[in-house]
């Protein structure tokens, strides 16, 4: 269940996602579920997370800063921003430095659709 082609794969690292994956792995190992069925459940989880977050989350986050360093390897970005202002729903906070790691280009492309 290491498929990272879905933009929803990022939510598998949440506490909800890891708990689901652990439970599914245990059920597959015990023979109570086929690996194919477990993968289908994970695919549905990815789709559901994207759908719920798009329809229910109304918050907006903006980052503004100076790009100090960046690189892209295999469609995954790493960025270091300096003198960053983070604004969440109009309320701001300043930070000296923020590191953004493993930004998946495919996720950004899918979000624009």
Kindly summarize this structure in a few lines.
Helices cover 39% and strands 35% of the residues.
What layout of secondary structure does this protein have?
Elements: H1 15-29, H2 35-56, E1 61-73, E2 76-88, E3 91-104, H3 105-111
Antiparallel strand pairs: 1-2, 2-3
Helix pairs in contact: 1-2
What does this structure look like?
- There is one protein chain.
- The protein contains three helices and three strands.
- The protein is α+β, with helices and mostly antiparallel strands and 113 residues long.
- The chain has two domains: 7-56, Transcription factor IIA gamma subunit, alpha-helical domain (Helix Hairpins); 61-111, TATA box binding Protein, subunit D, domain 2, CATH 2.30.18.10.
- A three-stranded antiparallel beta sheet has the order 1-2-3.
- It is elongated and about 55 Å long.
- The two termini are 25 Å apart.
- The model has no long low-confidence stretch (mean pLDDT 82).
Structural class: alpha+beta
Give the strand tally.
Answer: 3
Q: What's the CATH H-level homologous superfamily of the largest domain? A: Transcription factor IIA (TFIIA), beta-barrel domain
Number of domains: 2
CATH domain class name of the largest domain: Mainly Beta
Low-confidence runs of at least 5 consecutive residues: none
Labels describing this entry:
alpha+beta, 2 domains, 3 helices, elongated, transcription, Transcription initiation factor IIA subunit 2, nucleus
